[in-house]
Amino acid sequence: MYRSRITGLGKYVPENVVTNDDLSKVMDTNHEWIVERTGIETRRHIAKGDGNTTAVMGVKAAKIALERADLDKQDVDLILFATLSPDYYFPGSGVLVQEMMDIKTCPAMDIRNQCSGFIYALSTADQFIKTGMYKNVLVIGSENHSGGLDFSTRGRGVSVIFGDGAAAAVVSRSEEDSGGIITTHLHSQGKFAEELALIGPSTNRWVPEIMEANDPEDTSYYPNMNGQLVFKNAVVRFSEVIVEGLTAAGWEASEIDMLVPHQANLRISQFIQKKFGLKDDQVYNNIQRYGNTTAASIPLALTEAWEEGKIKSGDKIVLAAFGSGFTWGSALIEW
Known about the structure:
- This protein has helices at 20-24, 31-38, 54-68, 93-100, 117-130, 156-159, 207-213, 227-249, 266-275, 287-290, 297-307; strands spanning 3-12, 17-19, 42-44, 78-82, 108-111, 136-143, 165-174, 180-188, 196-197, 224-225, 258-261, 316-323, 327-334.
- The protein is of the alpha/beta class.
- The protein folds into two domains: 3-174, Thiolase/Chalcone synthase (Peroxisomal Thiolase, Chain A, domain 1, 3-Layer(aba) Sandwich); 180-334, Thiolase/Chalcone synthase (Peroxisomal Thiolase, Chain A, domain 1), CATH 3.40.47.
- The chain is globular.
């Protein structure tokens, strides 16, 4: 059985920086309120007319990742695109990337697992490579949240959290006997599906029905979140899935060189850091600058950590995510 290894990383975020003070001009909030509850100071939003879409940002990140992997675009055997905000309801954004990059005919798959989407995609890439089916898999996480948020006081509990951006990883076959992706673990618990969700429009309440109702109080087409329930479940599931991975890999928590958690809330990351007894230089957080970029969150943080020299060859890396679904997962990597 082959091993798989991340050979290239890339990221892209829109140039438009939105501060907490900017948000306070359109809703009843302030910088201190947002930082205290989330840790977020700024985020990036796609600006009208800048040409960015979910797929376009994914392409920009993917080109950087391929260049760093020293691969040509025609070396890509499979595209995995993780997002909750595809360009269209259908088709998925993976095929748009294939066309925009002029990649040869190859399979393209969208993975709709929201905050854990990149972990699910990385695990999928790992399995395809280990079985020998594919050699080079392009894994992208990209999100355009800003176009679908409620920027009013009513929606502030959600809207202050999310930002736009993309990141990509090239996962390739390795002939080495050790290292690379060591183990991945995936879970879901669907009974909480509507506690963090965008309910409509959907096939249960399709567009004509919403238009006919013409209800100004209808918020079904905005994301809703039971914040306290999500937080309580997140800290438990983060811990469980990290322990599950450590046990499978035979690692101790003290051996972790870098934990890259999904950037959902700085308080969750700090809780997990304390629980596992990790120092500040063993955990990478960038939610302060980008907010929660959902499927782009982990690869964006992973790319920055690598670019800053905080991840080196031989390091033991733990990725972990929890989010809507509820779904969660972890991946352990020997760099």
